[in-house]
Amino acid sequence: MKYFGIFITIFLFAGPISGQDIFEQWTPPQNNAHLQFLASDELKGRDTGEPGNDIAARYIAIQFEAFGLKPVPGLDSYLQPVPLARVSPQDHSVEWNGTKFEQGQSFLALSEDEFVGNFESVFLNHGAEEADYEGVDVEGKLVITLMGDGDNKSPQAAFGMRKEKAALAQAKGAMGIVEIFALQMPWTMLSNYMGRGRLDIDQEDENADPFFYGIINLEKEEIGKLVAGDLGKMNFNYPGMLKEKSSSNNVLGYIEGTDPGLKADFVLLSAHFDHVGTGTFGNDPDTIFNGARDNGIGVVAVLSAAQTLVKNPPKRSVLFAAWTGEEKGLLGSRYFVENPPIELKKIRFNLNSDGAGYDDTTLVSVMGLTRVGAEKEIDEACRKFGLKSLADPAPEQGLFDRSDNVNFAKMGIPAPTFSPGFAEFSKEISKYYHRPGDHYENLNLNYLDKFWKAFIQAAYNIANMSQNPQWLTGDKYEAAAQELYGKN
After folding, report:
1. What is the pTM of this model?
2. Which of 5, 26, 63, 185 lies deepest, with the highest CB count within 10 Å?
3. Domain count, the chain
4. Is 261 found in the same domain as 228?
5. 3-state secondary structure (DSSP) of residue 263
6. Rounded to an integer, what distance in angstroms lies between the CA atom of residue 87 and that of residue 113?
7. If pLDDT is split at 50, 70 and 90, which confidence band does 20 have?
8. Same domain, 230 and 260
9. What distance in Å separates the CA atoms of residue 409 and residue 413, rounded to the nearest whole number?
10. Which domain holds residue 285?
């Protein structure tokens, strides 16, 4: 799998498209070459913070420039630097009601800063909403909650709520929050993953008050005592995290829309380009996780869209984004929404592409299809190429909230994820998901040709809609949309 020379040789200089068919000058061999390079051994699995990840980012930036995309105003190039830090926990223990909880064994401290003291604790069930705090004084105390909000469909979604819950507890005056591990996965999986250190966004706020976040593993009878109100003080002597600075880049470019009244608004097309790097899996001698499916396919969807739409721009402007750090906790897209070079209220839709693979080449699986106000436009795009759109496969997995789109959904932006076809997590999906065998050579390129075209057509349809797409009435992200865009 040696394709390093493709990095130098691929450039596009096709002329403008005529007529109404945006695929008149479609060049699928170009797209196959992009995917060959991104999934090549030379990039070593594109792990965030590693050289292969940087090469992938610069490769995508070169393509954006060759296609004729404009850099986003305010950035020096097509790269948006994402400051990162590799943080590692130090050994310590916590005492609570006469019991000592050791780091990694029964407790995980995930805060970067030192935290020392003896704190009164308050149990708030899930502590995920304002209503959980009604009539409860948490000022200067430690909030104890169950993980998630009770409605989570997956461990990833429950764990992904930690920042929101911590922010709510801090706003109420709490000194910290400790979540009780209550997920459908072994404690050792979480402790082994989080206990070995992680990458996170490095955004230090010198004026921020120190706040603690941790996870504790309790027996069921101990949880019952908490629910009954049998609480005591929790004693900390936590030294904080060891920190080593790192960095990576998002890749951004845009084209201007053609309609004077609509071109101030953007449709965002996105995919993450990072993968999980190198390692071992079972007895497989291959140590490179090439990530052709996750998420080389999605990156090529965005590159293909950029190549096509720059020649035939729609009414709205289109922002193209390749995110870093998705596999590390949606870091690149999170950094973008926290530091947007374009006002978020100008982004009216995000069509994200991500996936673990496919087992049905008649489908496109769309997380959020029926929720985001563009079902007709997406469905028509798929049918044009002989594919059927399937809404939210494997709902028990909570897939909508597991990719970069969720960072935009939380801000109120309608944001589905456009994925290769599957109806469940089958053996065919598991065979390649985060496995060394996820190679370019075992892909169905005829299917991907149709998949990429459907993605581009869907983007084109949405960017030409007469009205901005809206969340389905009553959707959990509708309130955030009203706050971002105003009620309309």
Report:
1. 0.87
2. 63
3. 2
4. no
5. coil
6. 11
7. low
8. no
9. 5
10. 6-15+23-84+247-485
